[in-house]
Structure to design on (554 residues):
């Protein structure tokens, strides 16, 4: 659905997108992450034909974004950051106008209008003037606008920003539902959003792609972190842990007679929790915490984009 | 074509859903009404009875007010066309919809021009009223309106082009207003240049070309002049809008 090859975009002397390549298959839900200034919005603006690239090749649905821009735009539903709207129009008027602009007519348009207004929970606001609406509602109008023509590709730039927690959950569910039968690429700062909604994460930093993998493959891999807490002095715990050959990177802290150790294993196939339990049972220690977790997206994000 | 009509209707709606259109209309009709009244009073003074010109040949282009007001309202109506869209960011959702730059530009042009022509319609009342009390040369009136409409077409295209260069409505207004006034004043250049250039300036001068219409003559020279300039400026505007794809 999306094919990006050696994309470069410069604003004067500043290179916003530095020779990136990736592709998105039909039906995938991809999260584009990165710190501010990473090049996410620029990449999306190039994908949606808003601005041209300096070099490289970008294709959407098989059409080139530069030479076949009109065809590309027929297949895309785009929601820019900050959702720009016409303040003097009413919600239903605006969506009706956008639907017409995207090629919908007559009953089909009315049907789609009703559907997106319901899906985005705008039914109670549909005859209000846009200027009077809250940010959250405006966000929902932007989403409804992106969805109205039932596009094959949805490009969403920070779709849940400014929404309250309830709305965030509903919008995420909505994206997840609609992502089942179309391709979605969304950019966000909220890592948990990518973890819950997306199948794949692409992390950008300073114009380059630093991470590109499916969520399922990295959740099962990577260095697991263990944590345990026992009621002995820190030094004793550390000594015991060091005896285990698989344990590496031990961090010990002590508080109120309880020692807490965080460490990693150099053998992912082995679950060290059993060994830790055995040690504490053999030494008659009270064991308060014993847990293991895979690296979170946040940890990967921080490690890849730290400055 | 459908996209053009959809865009055209939306542009027109933004003029009657916001105060701008109404303010422009009120100011325009107030000034023109005052000019009309003043002309009738002045031409009724005994010392002016020998004058050849009637009210309407002076109202259309014979007074300073006509040119200033037209420059002002053209600049005011066109200032938001592209500048506001750029500033608010709606240009992004507009240009990423499946519409062409030509459709976007022409819809804005015709919406603005339609409104500008529409606000002239109430002035028909002056013609009807005067016609009850005096002899009106309807040829002059008709040619005056035609000339005015062509002139409005030209001024709208100037304003639209300038609006496409900037994000600030204020800058668009000021620059459009000044450019239009400079175009009007080109006719005065005739008096200070060499004979070789004089003819060129006379042909290029808006005031000169408009004179025929004031006299009641709809000449092909005048029509071609206004239409061709408007079309050329529209072409430049389309290129200016397309130029975002080159940067």
């Amino acid at each position: 659905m999306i094919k990006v090859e050696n994309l470069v975009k410069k604003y004067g002397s500043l290179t916003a997108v530095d020779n990136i390549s990736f592709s998105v298959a039909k039906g995938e839900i991809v999260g584009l992450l990165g710190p501010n200034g990473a090049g996410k919005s620029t990449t999306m603006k190039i994908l949606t034909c808003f601005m041209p690239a300096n070099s490289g090749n970008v294709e959407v649905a098989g059409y080139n974004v530069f030479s076949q821009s009109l065809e590309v735009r027929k297949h895309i539903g785009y929601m820019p950051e900050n959702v720009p709207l016409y303040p003097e129009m009413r919600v239903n008027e605006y969506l009706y106008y956008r639907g017409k602009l995207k090629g919908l007519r007559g009953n089909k348009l009315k049907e789609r209008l009703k559907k997106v207004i319901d899906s985005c929970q705008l039914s109670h606001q549909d005859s209000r003037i846009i200027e009077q609406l809250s940010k959250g509602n405006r966000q929902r109008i932007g989403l409804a606008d992106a969805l109205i023509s039932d596009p094959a590709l949805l490009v969403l730039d920070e779709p849940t920003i400014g929404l309250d927690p309830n709305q965030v959950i509903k919008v995420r569910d909505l994206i997840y539902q609609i992502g089942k039968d179309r391709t979605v690429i969304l950019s966000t700062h909220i890592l948990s959003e990518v973890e819950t909604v997306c199948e794949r994460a692409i992390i950008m930093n300073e114009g380059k792609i630093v991470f590109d993998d499916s969520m399922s493959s990295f959740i099962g891999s990577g260095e697991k972190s263990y944590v345990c807490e026992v009621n002995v002095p820190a030094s004793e715990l550390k000594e015991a842990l060091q005896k285990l050959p698989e344990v590496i990177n031990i961090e010990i802290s002590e508080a109120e007679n309880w020692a807490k150790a965080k460490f990693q294993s150099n053998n992912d196939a082995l679950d060290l929790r059993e060994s830790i339990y055995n040690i504490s049972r053999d030494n008659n220690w009270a064991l308060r915490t014993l847990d293991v977790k895979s690296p979170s997206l946040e940890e990967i994000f921080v490690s890849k984009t730290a400055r | 074509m459908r996209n053009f009509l959809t865009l055209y209707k939306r542009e027109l709606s933004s003029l009657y859903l916001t105060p701008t259109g109404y303010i422009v209309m009120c100011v325009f009709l107030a000034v023109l009404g005052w000019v009309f009244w003043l002309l009738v009073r002045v031409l009724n003074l005994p010392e002016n009875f020998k004058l050849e010109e009637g009210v309407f040949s002076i109202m259309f282009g014979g007074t300073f007010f006509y040119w200033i007001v037209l420059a002002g309202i053209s600049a005011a109506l066109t200032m938001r066309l592209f500048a506001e869209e750029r500033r608010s960011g709606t240009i992004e959702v507009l240009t990423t919809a499946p519409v062409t730059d030509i459709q976007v530009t022409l819809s804005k042009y015709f919406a603005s021009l339609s409104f500008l022509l529409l606000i002239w319609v109430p002035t028909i009342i002056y013609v009807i009223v005067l016609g009850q009390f005096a002899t009106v040369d309807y040829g002059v009136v008709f040619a005056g309106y035609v000339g005015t409409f062509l002139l409005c077409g030209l001024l709208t295209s100037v304003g639209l082009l300038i609006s496409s260069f900037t994000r600030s409505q204020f800058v668009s207004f000021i620059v459009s207003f000044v450019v239009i006034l400079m175009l009007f004043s080109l006719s005065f250049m005739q008096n200070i240049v060499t004979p070789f250039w004089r003819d060129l300036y006379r042909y290029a001068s808006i005031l000169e070309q408009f004179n025929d219409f004031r006299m009641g003559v709809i000449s092909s020279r005048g029509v071609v002049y206004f239409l061709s300039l408007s079309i050329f400026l529209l072409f430049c505007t389309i290129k200016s809008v397309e130029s975002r794809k080159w940067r």
Chain A has a mean pLDDT of 87. The radius of gyration of chain A is 25 Å.
